[in-house]
């Protein structure tokens, strides 16, 4: 099977077109759901040992039962912080809402602020209040008394995708500019340049808009409950060995059912993950250098377009088709290797969809070409014997229903064997191609059909054609063939003639296609007996 009959400029233009469409689909994330399905499959079971310094102090159901209804007095949190300070914890995230003062007892705020000051390594959350109606977006910071004693503040904004799964986060965010680190980043206290996809419009910040930067995908250590936890009430009561707390990065947060925020992650769809464990995963991936980054949008789009363009170009080449069919699994493998070996996520769905569309179009073309080949003569391109018999049967049945005449024309090349023997088989093939071109040119209407069903034997099926119409076609064909000059051996110019038999009837109830063939063959025999280079027409009159 030959490749698509396109010139190189046409191949390149077609490849560039489909590649450009794939790049557009990648840029606008038309297939984001498919991308995330691939991503979840790749990272769902991609566990790693979490950083051993991380510890969650869980405000769990047991703590609520023993300490009492939430919220608890801030002096309670102060006592817990003192326990951690005494044990020598390295850093503490107190993931609690502290944006309003205690209106019943101002001493509570002072107690907590003092405990935070004594520790000296406490991180407090900044909450983002989204714009609502006439209210603009704002940052909810801890009250000044408490915030002033914290080592730093960190935003607790959790990025949840449209399908409800938390796959990534922005390492920095804030109103007007992304100036707050994420809580997990603040807990890890990571130094140096931050990884992640940068804000594409950093100069477009508004003092009233929540801005985010340094987007990364969270590399989860595993499913929920992967990190060691101790109960808040056990730590408060002194039931936790201080050695377990020494040098630890502690995250104090909600895990109790019905109160704690619950997140779905790629690691499981059966169990929810608490916000505290989410932040622990962020800190762990930063501490163990397992951050999953994304390529710049332009590079992702260009790579998607290039892969599809190469696939399209390969399918148009005679020896590259098989390798081009490997484009789909190769793209999936490329995405997998980049993720697993380089912690780089390349979303493949736009490229895969483009390749699939190109391959489907190519397969349909090949099927069509195979069907044409199965019904075509390889030398001349006219219909072969099988197609001739099928078409004659169809037109015979159609003529029987409509009562319209059907003409069958059988054509022989005069003295073809002599010409073949004298000038060679290649010259003989050239003669057959020239004759086939002329015969095909006289099958002008959509239902007319030209065929070659023997060595030098051709046929024309002319539906809805009376004898006089068929004779006009044949006379014109004979005249045009007589004008042909075919190159022969030793530079000779050879003239070719045809002998034609025509049989015309209205198909009757008892007639069969073979009757038309036998009638046209008998007319052809009479034309040969009359001296060749002519025709005989049998119309029944």
Concise structural overview:
The protein has 541 residues and is an alpha/beta fold. It has three domains: 8-42 and 296-374, no CATH class; 49-287, no CATH class; 385-538, 2-Layer Sandwich (Alpha-Beta Plaits).
Largest sheet: 7 strands, mixed
How many E strands?
19
Cα shape: rod-shaped
> What number of domains?
3
* Tally of DSSP helical segments: 19
Distance between the termini: 48 Å
Oligomer state equals: single chain
Q: Assess the beta-strand content as a share of residues.
A: 15-25%
Sequence stretches where pLDDT stays below 50 over 5 or more residues: none
Structural class: alpha/beta
Average pLDDT score:
91
Q: Estimate percent helicity.
A: 40-55%
Supply Rg: 41 Å
Question: What report would you give on this structure?
Answer:
This protein is 44% helix and 19% strand. The protein is an alpha/beta fold. It has three domains: 8-42 and 296-374, no CATH class; 49-287, no CATH class; 385-538, Alpha-Beta Plaits, CATH 3.30.70. Strands 1, 2, 3, 4, 5, 9 and 10 form a seven-stranded mixed sheet that branches. A five-stranded mixed sheet has the order 14-15-13-18-19, sandwiched between helices. Strand 2, helix 5 and strand 3 (122-129) form a beta-alpha-beta unit. Helix 1 packs antiparallel against helix 11 (297-315), helix 1 runs antiparallel to helix 14 and helix 13 (327-342) runs antiparallel to helix 14. The two termini are 48 Å apart.
